[in-house]
Structure formats: C-alpha cells, structure tokens
Amino acid sequence: MVGGALALALATGGLAVTLVDRTPLSAMAAAPYDGRASAVAYASQRLLAQIGLWQLVEHAAEPILDIRVSDGASSLFLHYDHRDLGAKMAGAPFGWIVENGAIRQGLAAMLEAAPAVQVLSQVRAERLTPGDPLAELALDDGTVLAAPLVVAADGTDSRLRGQARIAAVQWRYPQDGIVCTMGHEAPHDGIAHERFLPAGPFAVLPMTDAPDGTHRSSIVWTEREKRAPGMMRLSDAAFGAEMQRRFGDWYGAVRVLGGRWRYPLRLLHAERYVGPRLALIGDAAHTIHPIAGQGLNLGLRDVAALAEVAVDDRRLGLDHGGLTTLERYERWRRPDNVSLMAATDGLNRLFSNDIGPVRLARDLGLAAVERMPGLKRLFMQHAMGTVGDLPRLLRGEAL
Ligand SMILES: Cc1cc2nc3c(=O)[nH]c(=O)nc-3n(C[C@H](O)[C@H](O)[C@H](O)COP(=O)(O)OP(=O)(O)OC[C@H]3O[C@@H](n4cnc5c(N)ncnc54)[C@H](O)[C@@H]3O)c2cc1C
User: Fold this and answer.
1) Which H or E run contains 220?
2) Which of 2, 121, 230, 317 has the most beta carbons within 10 angstroms of its beta carbon?
3) Ligand 1 pocket, 44 CB below 6 A?
4) Which among 124, 154, 156, 280 is the best mutation to test ligand 1's pocket, defined by most ligand atoms within 8 Å of the CB?
5) pLDDT in tens, 297-316
6) Whole-number Cα distances in Å, 112 to 107, 109, 124, 146, 182
C-alpha cells in the first residue's frame, strides 16, 4: 500500500516510475489477501485525495467521530469526541476506517491505468548496485532496471534493506493480532472502542454497513502469542461468544462475518532510512505495534515527505536520487517515526498486564488526561496526523 501510494504521488509530480512487486496487484486486491481495515488519519486522507485514490475508496470509508479508551473492566475511560476539536476543525472526523481490500483495489486500478507507472509483478527485487548517475536493480527474472532512485517499500523483512547492509533494531512482541469483521445488531454511531485487556489492546473500529444493511465493525484483538492459535481454531459461534465476553452487550447480538486473520506483532526500526540511491519507506523502515492504528499512516507520511523532496529537486534540475536529497527526507521523517514508535511500544507495555499498582497508576493517568482539555486536544491532533511540519500532500496541497 505504501509503495503503491508513492508510485502514484511521484507520477503526479511528473516522474516516471517502475513498481515491482512479487505478488500480482489483482491477488493483493482480492478479499482473502488482507482482512484488515485501517484507521486512515485525517491528514493521510488529504494525501490520498491529492493522488486521486480517495475518490475510489470513499464509498468504503466510515468516519471516526468518537474514540473511547478503557482499561479492562474498569469503568474509567478516556473519551475523545470530534466535536471537541475546536471551531477550526468543526465537523471534521478524526479519520476514517477503510478496509484494506478497498485501498488495494483502488491502488490496483489506478496503478494499472497510470501512464507514468510501469507495473512489473510476480518478480522479486533481488540485488541493488548503486552507481552514478543511476543505480541498477536486478530482478529474479533476469531483468535489470536502472534509475536515479530506488525506493524499498518491501515491508518489515525488506530484502533491499538487508542488501544495503542497513541494520535495524527489532523484536517480536509476545502477542499476535487477530483480525476479523464483526456484524452487530446495534449501530456503532461512529465510535471506535479500544479496551486494554491483560493480553493486550482489543479494538472495535466502525465500518460502513454491508450492502444488506448489516452494521459492521473491524476487530483487532491482541492475544498472547501462545493462545492465539487456539483462538483461531474456535468455531465462529465460540469465537463470537469470546468477542462478546470482551465488550458486553454494547453492540447487541454479534457474529463473525467472513474469515479471520492472524498477524505476528513486531517492532522494527532501521538505523538509517537512506543509502546511496536508496530510500526506505513504510514498514521496511519502521514497523510498529498496531495499538494506535498508525503504521500505515506513518508510511503515508514517508510518502508525502519523500515525494516532496524528490519532486522539488527534480524540478530544480538537481539529482533527486542523490544523498543530499535523501538525507533531507530522513531528517524530516525520523523524529516523527521515533516518537510514535516509542509511544506505541510504551503504551503496549504499560497496559498489557494486570499488575495492581501499575493498573492503579495508569487509571489515575487516564483520569488526569480526561480532565485536561488542552492535552486531550493535542492527543486528538496527533491521532489526526495534523501536528508538526507537514509536507504539502498532507496539508491537502498539490505536490
Ligand atoms: C493487525 C494490524 C492492524 C493494523 N491496523 C492499522 C491501522 O488501523 N492503521 C494504520 O495506519 N496501520 C495499521 N497497521 C499497520 C499497517 O498495516 C502497515 O504499516 C502497512 O500495511 C505497511 O505497508 P507497507 O506497504 O509498508 O508494507 P507491506 O504491506 O509489508 O508491503 C510490502 C510489499 O512488498 C512486496 N515485496 C516484499 N519483498 C519483495 C521483493 N523482494 N521484491 C518485490 N516485492 C517484494 C510484498 O509483496 C508487499 O506487497 C496494522 C497492522 C497490523 C498487523
């Protein structure tokens, strides 16, 4: 998703792009490939609109109007209401929940049709040889591509990152993310719930209604790594009962719609995002815990920053794949990625346990934040991705 979005952004900025993926775009757009829905932050939506993708996914996007965070069975919770955002943002949602399948379908349609993008699928990027003025990228079918800039958007286990000998700090959380879509009796009213349970956060995210009117929400259920396979083996009825046990009768009767997916949860941060004629973006540069639904959003912010520095330098007749350009990208993105990575990791550690004193302290913390409107508003702006020195695409401006 991140690499595809960058290809479209660069194409709107006048660059010719070749996109290489080992998996066909049509297979990635098919339902079984990815059962997740993503919380697309307010600023990320502006980027998607600028590259023309939002217009294709809007029908599948449900606005997030309200976020409620609670700690286990405790009644204490943080409540973020979009109406508290202030006059300047009146009526704006925090973001939208969009099925990844819809994003992937929109991307596939746009990438196949974009005259400036050549798609090579079912081939792997194998070996990168930097050079001046062009780097060479060898594919596993014998093709060799030459370009001033190679971007690795090849995910957490990035082959190109390894090839460039860029080290990464990384660990596996002892947790898996179980994902499914839930049909429910009562409407969700645009509310996203996150409940912190001892095994990890349990999120219920509002989705658009199904064509037959069924109310739907996406579940991201963090479970202990050892227990997750057992949960996956439960019948739909038993799994539905387990879900219901975790959020009571808020949604009325519930049932699982379609399949279930399990994702091992990891953290990874590359020591550098750039090398000679190479830039890392998305999960290839940084993979974070899904506790705050921000991994894709960080990747889209990489897209906005890298597209801006590359397109601007190209317009000035400068070498847009040179280290001076790429280092500007890295300096722009690293602080934001590091702070979100630290925050999500810290939150997961603080909340994924049932230790009495820790629980008391965090509940006092939640209660304190709830009483501080200024701090709450800042948290809301962070969730929307509207804080800091934003590239043009994230401000809703053309490249
Ligand atoms: C349970 C869960 C819930 C999440 N929820 C949210 C959310 O609500 N909001 C949010 O912002 N983020 C969320 N995320 C994070 C988000 O899904 C990821 O950050 C995002 O999908 C990363 O996209 P990417 O394009 O960088 O990497 P990937 O999706 O890993 O894509 C890498 C691509 O590279 C290709 N590839 C790999 N190696 C090669 C090679 N050698 N040659 C050619 N092609 C190759 C692969 O086929 C793939 O298409 C969630 C993550 C999880 C696990």
Assistant:
1) strand 215-224
2) 2
3) no
4) 154
5) 999 999 999 999 999 999 99
6) 8, 5, 18, 21, 32
In three-state secondary structure terms, 239 is helix
CA 274 to chain centre: 21
| 192 touches 80 (CB < 8 A) | no
Whether the CB of 224 sits within 6 Å of ligand 1: no
**Shortest CA distance to 24 belongs to which of 162, 155, 124?**
124
SS3 173: strand
Q: Is 295 in the pocket of ligand 1 (CB under 6 A)?
A: yes
Atom of ligand 1 nearest to the CA of 159: 41
Strand order in the sheet with 274-275: 150-152, 278-280, 274-275
pLDDT band at 354 (very low <50, low <70, confident <90, very high): confident
CATH number at 2-62+95-170+267-352: 3.50.50.60
**Cβ partners under 8 Å of residue 395, min gap 6:** 43, 46
Q: Are 260 and 178 in contact (CB under 8 A)?
A: yes
Which residue carries 């595809």 as its tokens? 4
Render 76-125 in DSSP notation, one character per residue. Answer: -EEEEEGGGG-GGGTT--SEEEEEHHHHHHHHHHHHHH-TTEEEEES--E
User: 148 Cβ partners below 8 Å, 6+ apart?
Assistant: 133, 134, 135, 277, 319, 320, 321, 322
Q: Residue 349: in which H helix or E strand, if any? A: helix 323-351
pLDDT > 70: what percent of the chain? Answer: 99
* CA 275 – CA 258 distance, rounded (Å): 43
Quick one: tokens of 195?
């409940």
Spatial distance between the Cα atoms of 381 and 233, rounded to a whole number of angstroms: 39
Helix (H) or strand (E) segment spanning residue 260: strand 254-270
Residue type at 83? R
Q: pLDDT, tens digit, for every residue of 45-98?
A: 999 999 999 999 999 999 999 999 888 766 667 888 888 887 778 789 999 999
pTM of the model: 0.96
Residue with tokens 């900025």: 13
Spatial distance between the Cα atoms of 385 and 119, rounded to a whole number of angstroms? 30
How many angstroms is it from 155 CA to the middle of ligand 1?
6
